[in-house]
Structure to design on (695 residues):
């Protein structure tokens, strides 16, 4: 006979364990789908460098751009669209050639405004050079999009201010890298009229070092943040890595100036340099195809409710591996606390970060395992329910790209992929191994995952619409 | 006659009788050099591949060779040297030197090429110009030969048309062309014939990736078959 005190103790321990589990873990099933089909992708294109956006107006409406078909003089490049939460997809050929003779899409990024109207930043190449354009909706949702003013250069990104609380709601911001400077500079073009006029402003500190990897996020109060890296040479760094600082700066005036955190911004990891990737051979080239990872090492997001800022970045640490770190600022970027999101066992890169309205943080990233005879690349989705202090990590897909005919060594999925959040759900897209196709290949793989604690009753009951 | 002498005579007669057949067999064997050259000449005289201004460009293959270019890239609207220069100044210096060399009369084309492009060559055209320019694909600086409105490579030539005419390529490979920045790189599909003397290139950045974006020519091998002096 077990004494009552022991039974009570055991009961208490069990209850404590259950309570801890409930407090520390999240819930929410994940839906994942290859959005390409033989009918939609008859040429078996690689669909690399995907970007995703969800209409704040109607969360069933999701849009993705990848390097699928190019535009021609008579036909636009496609936007992949779903109107049923990602269950079914179509290609809408609405990104028209911006000017005769322009080739593209080059780089691209997609977003929605508060009214559910779509915007796409596009890079076009011409005989004369490179131009960026922000496309906007001027007709039906699936009609041809209209390009705005030409601006910019390398790797345009895009953030549209859709916060009801922002005094600059409707403004848009497009970071890009200015190669016309002696040392490349992170630059942000802003527009208060949907991209019809674009105004480019130098934002990064290139007084000593070249900039790279510029990403943006908008806080609910209308303040705009960018993260970028300063490339500080390779002294002491192993092959494929360079020394860097990841700097965050803030604009408090709609992108007119970038001095909210001083002229250079604030390093999210403090004064000490970190080592990050700068390579065309992410992976093990002796064991298969490899990927470019040069501006694939930072991302930024803002909590849409309280304005906390989160920065994800790559740092090769004492583990000897490149790891994903996440830094959090609760004071508009002035100070940062960083923690490692990965487990110190594999080289990792390509972080994208997003935050739900209840403050769950999600990071999409890629690592590789070359312990066997081939290099296996693994897309991960890690979530933190405690503001980035600890992480639950799931592997979305493990892939050996070598047998995939449309996987080009040197540019496998692109420089970045797509992750966003609406309400309590993460929406992501990565370029991974196809499923259900006649030919095994690279395809855009969509996923969404609602992310609540077990005891967030309102969150659990909330419809994704 | 002694039996051994009779046998020897018989063998000698047999050998003499067999000699023409030996020679015949030898002369029937394809000469790899000739065969390769004639096949390359077939490519270079094929008006389904080249635009009307190609022979004018071919006539300056010797100048490309003098400038140390081993390969040239023939696009529909221009001919580009394969050598990559880091700075515009380096490319400009070479372009000026080649422009000077272009002032000398063009080399005489081989009778086969002249015959194939008789109509195109009969037309009066303004001279080709050489300049230095940035080559956006990899952000290098290159020598470029062009003339406003010229068509060197046939517009819209598809790789399937090339394969239909010449059979499948000996080798197909892909190449990712990295530039200074991180914009989308061109992924080239390179289909090789004649041991790499002629390569047909498709680019995934083209509006229609099935179209041949450029042809890469081995300058020495091509000059040897299309220039009369060679």
């Amino acid at each position: 006979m077990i004494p009552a005190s022991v039974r009570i103790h055991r009961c208490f321990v069990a209850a404590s364990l259950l309570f801890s589990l409930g407090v520390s873990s999240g819930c929410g099933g994940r839906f994942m789908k290859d959005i390409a089909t033989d009918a939609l992708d008859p040429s078996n294109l690689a669909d690399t460098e995907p970007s995703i956006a969800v209409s704040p107006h109607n969360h069933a409406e999701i849009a993705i751009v990848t390097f699928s078909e190019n535009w021609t003089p008579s036909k636009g490049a496609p936007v992949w669209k779903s109107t049923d939460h990602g269950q079914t997809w179509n290609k809408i050929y609405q990104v028209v050639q911006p000017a005769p003779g322009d080739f593209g899409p080059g780089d691209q990024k997609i977003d929605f405004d508060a009214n559910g109207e779509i915007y796409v930043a596009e890079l076009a190449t011409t005989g004369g050079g490179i131009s960026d354009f922000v496309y906007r909706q001027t007709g039906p949702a699936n009609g041809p999009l209209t390009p705005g003013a030409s601006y910019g250069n390398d790797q345009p990104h895009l953030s549209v201010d859709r916060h009801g609380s922002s005094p600059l709601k409707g403004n848009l911001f497009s970071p890009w890298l200015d190669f016309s400077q002696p040392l490349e500079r992170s630059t942000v073009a802003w527009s208060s009229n949907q991209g019809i006029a674009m105004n480019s402003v130098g934002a990064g500190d290139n007084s000593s070092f070249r900039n790279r990897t510029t990403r943006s996020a908008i806080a609910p109060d209308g303040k705009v943040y960018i993260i970028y890296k300063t490339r500080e040479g390779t002294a002491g760094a192993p092959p494929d890595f360079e020394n860097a600082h990841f700097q965050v700066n803030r604009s408090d005036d709609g992108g007119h100036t970038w001095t909210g955190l001083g002229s250079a911004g604030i390093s999210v990891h403090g004064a000490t340099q970190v080592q990050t990737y700068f390579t065309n051979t992410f992976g093990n080239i002796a064991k298969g195809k490899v990927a470019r990872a040069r501006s694939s090492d930072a991302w930024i997001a803002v909590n849409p409710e309280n304005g906390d800022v989160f920065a994800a970045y790559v740092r090769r640490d004492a583990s000897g591996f490149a790891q994903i770190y996440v830094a959090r600022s609760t004071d508009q970027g002035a100070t940062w606390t960083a923690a490692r999101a990965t487990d110190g066992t594999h080289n990792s890169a390509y972080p994208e970060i997003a935050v739900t309205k209840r403050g769950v943080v999600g990071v999409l990233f890629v690592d590789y395992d070359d312990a066997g005879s081939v290099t296996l690349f693994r897309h991960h989705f890690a979530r933190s329910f405690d503001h980035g202090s600890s992480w639950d990590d799931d592997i979305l897909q493990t892939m050996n790209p070598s047998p995939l005919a449309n996987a080009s060594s040197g540019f496998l999925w692109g420089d970045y992929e797509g992750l966003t959040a609406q309400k309590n759900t993460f929406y992501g897209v990565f370029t991974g191994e196809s499923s259900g196709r006649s030919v095994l290949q690279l395809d855009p793989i969509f996923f969404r995952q609602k992310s609540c604690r077990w005891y967030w009753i309102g969150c659990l009951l909330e419809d994704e619409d | 006659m002694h039996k051994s002498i009779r046998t020897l005579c018989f063998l000698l007669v047999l050998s003499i009788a067999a000699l023409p057949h030996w020679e015949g067999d030898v002369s029937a064997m394809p000469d790899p050099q000739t065969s390769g050259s004639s096949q390359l000449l077939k490519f270079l005289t094929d008006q389904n591949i080249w635009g009307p201004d190609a022979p004018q460009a071919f006539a300056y293959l010797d100048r490309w060779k003098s400038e140390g270019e081993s390969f040239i890239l023939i696009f529909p609207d221009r001919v580009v040297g394969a050598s990559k220069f880091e700075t515009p100044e380096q490319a400009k210096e070479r372009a000026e030197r080649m422009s000077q060399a272009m002032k000398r009369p063009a080399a005489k084309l081989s009778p086969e090429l002249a015959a194939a492009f008789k109509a195109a060559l009969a037309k009066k055209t303004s001279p080709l110009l050489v300049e230095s320019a940035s080559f956006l694909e990899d952000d290098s600086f290159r020598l470029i030969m062009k003339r406003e409105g010229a068509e060197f490579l046939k517009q819209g030539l598809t790789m399937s048309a090339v394969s239909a005419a010449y059979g499948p390529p000996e080798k197909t490979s892909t190449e990712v062309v990295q530039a200074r920045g991180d914009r989308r790189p061109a992924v080239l599909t390179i289909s090789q014939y004649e041991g790499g003397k002629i390569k047909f290139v498709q680019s995934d950045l083209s509006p229609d990736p099935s179209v041949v974006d450029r042809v890469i020519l081995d300058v020495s091998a091509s000059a040897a078959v299309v220039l009369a002096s060679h």
